[in-house]
Design brief:
Helix content: 40-55%
Shape: elongated
Distance between the termini: 10 Å
Number of strands: 8
Structural class: alpha/beta
Number of helices: 12
Strand content: 5-15%
Order of helices and strands: HHHHHEHEHEHEHEHEHEEH
Oligomer: single chain
Length: 317
């Protein structure tokens, strides 16, 4: 385990192992074919490994970086046995993830000097945005923090109602207006209410439309500007939620949203039940934005703080 740190509770780690089971077995199955009958890591093994990484949704650019790193080790060590390939992959991918993610966190925390801590959540409809907000509210409340939600996705009645279900379930207040209201107005009310209630965390949901990037950019800029009338440096985090099960489509969404607004962290959902878990590695590397949370199950506890050591351990175990 050398570079890996066993810092999750065994229960959390079991959930992570189970959530990444399909990704892991798909990847390791392909990897075993690459090294079958081979004792040494040579050009053919590396060519085949490149194919495996790309087909595991790691992404072309990130795959090339990983292959380059392994080539450097092959050149340096002269002889690398295929039995070492899994270990080397773990080390190099953890190293790659280290460039973006601190990787030490295991708990849902917020900075002590930011109160209220304002979190704006963005992402297209259907990626698990509202569910992620609900699960975050639950986790923050569990830490003893006072949470307020703001339903600023006012374009769909379903979005407001769904968030209300989570607010009721977690038992936290939610600020809402009628469908079609100005999203910035809802965000303003939510922050004002949060400040009045001495809230520790305010989470603002936003509309999940991507058909017009200019409109999206204008809307998110306006929401931010209006929030700053109440809390001068809000939002403190802009969290982009991506559906991990869509693989390369998640890359595309990340590209669109990072072009439309400043995104400061990522949540990758629906990693359970898919073989596309490699997308976390590629997205983290390509966008240089830390992956803060991952969804590895449907239960309220199954949103986890992303820890690179534990993720790599579960992926290559």
């Amino acid at each position: 385990m050398s570079f890996l740190k066993k810092i999750f509770s065994s229960e959390k780690k079991e959930t992570l192992d189970k959530g990444l089971e399909k990704s892991k077995s798909s990847f390791l199955g392909k990897l075993s074919k690459v090294v079958a009958g081979k004792s040494k890591v040579d050009d053919e093994v590396l060519d085949n490994l490149e194919e495996v990484l790309v087909s595991s949704d790691v992404g072309v650019n990130t795959t090339l970086k990983v292959i380059e790193r392994i080539e450097e080790r092959v050149a340096k060590d002269k002889y690398l046995g295929t039995d070492e390939l899994n270990k080397i992959l773990r080390e190099e991918i953890a190293g790659l993830l280290s460039e973006t993610n601190s990787g030490e966190d295991t708990e849902f925390t917020i900075p002590e000097n930011k109160k209220p801590y304002v979190l704006m959540v963005v992402g297209v409809n259907g990626v698990g945005k509202t569910t992620t907000i609900g699960k975050l509210a639950y986790q923050f409340k569990k830490q003893g923090l006072k949470v307020v939600l703001g339903a600023a996705d006012t374009f769909r009645a379903a979005a407001i109602d769904q968030l209300q279900v989570w607010a009721d379930r977690v038992d936290v207040p939610m600020i809402r207006q009628d469908m079609g209201s100005d999203p910035a107005s809802v965000a303003f009310d939510a922050l004002e209410s949060g400040v009045n209630q001495n809230a520790d965390v305010i989470i603002i949901d936003t509309a999940g439309r991507l058909h017009n990037k200019v409109n999206l950019m204008n809307e998110l800029t306006k929401v931010k500007r209006v929030m700053q009338k109440v809390v001068g440096d809000a939002p403190h985090d802009v969290l982009l939620v991506l559906d991990g099960s869509t693989g390369q489509n998640a890359f595309e969404q990340a590209k669109q949203f990072t072009a439309a607004t400043e995104v400061t962290s990522l949540a990758v959902t629906k990693l359970d039940g898919t073989a596309k878990g490699g997308v976390v590695i590629g997205i983290s590397d390509q966008f240089k934005i830390p992956v803060k949370y991952i969804g590895v199950g449907e239960g309220i506890e199954d949103l986890q703080v992303f820890n690179k050591f534990e993720f790599v351990d579960s992926f290559f175990k």
